[in-house]
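Consider the following assembly input.
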Amino acid sequence: MIENIFNNLPDNFPEELFQTLLVNKQVKIERIVSRGHATPANEWYDQDWDEWVLLIKGEAVLAFDDGVRLTMRCGDYVLLPAHRKHRVEWTVSDQDTIWLAVHLHAG
Amino acid sequence: MIENIFNNLPDNFPEELFQTLLVNKQVKIERIVSRGHATPANEWYDQDWDEWVLLIKGEAVLAFDDGVRLTMRCGDYVLLPAHRKHRVEWTVSDQDTIWLAVHLHAG
């Protein structure tokens, strides 16, 4: 019944790891794990829905297509409004970076 | 734009502290902080919607009306289905316990 967000990490993964923890018609709750990974170069997330993210562990830089950069540390959270183009520009390489992402679908 | 889930805690609060971080028609994302608090005796949460909770810091015991007890530690998460009656029976007293709660409204 209980699971833990820090558990069940693979030894190796070639790119950011996306795992759905819960999904229904309203939301998708996702764990995203990076180990020095970034979004592939010149690739932007351009979503039809709002996404709320919380950085649980590690450190990352979120980049937006208007040039804004946000350094995210443990406990930081931010709302990524629909169609606000963003990418993970950098994550710390000496530990895992773990995000909780809540995708707010239109229903 | 960025906020931090560990910040802006009051020096004192007489009971569990509930703060809405984000609300829309699909969900309410909430921070719940306890400092040794519990749900008032004999009071049960009996909700019309599912709630997903993640323990970010501290330690707590969730109790259910069928006698089940769940000890929750940092990083633990669990789904509380609608009408599964529950209460916070105990939280650790020597540090804050911080929960992230995602209430999944029917829309």
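The interface with chain B takes residues 1-7, 21-22, 24-27, 29, 50, 52, 54, 56, 70, 72-79, 100, 102, 104-105, 107 of chain A (CB under 8 Å). Ask yourself how this observation constrains the way the partners meet.
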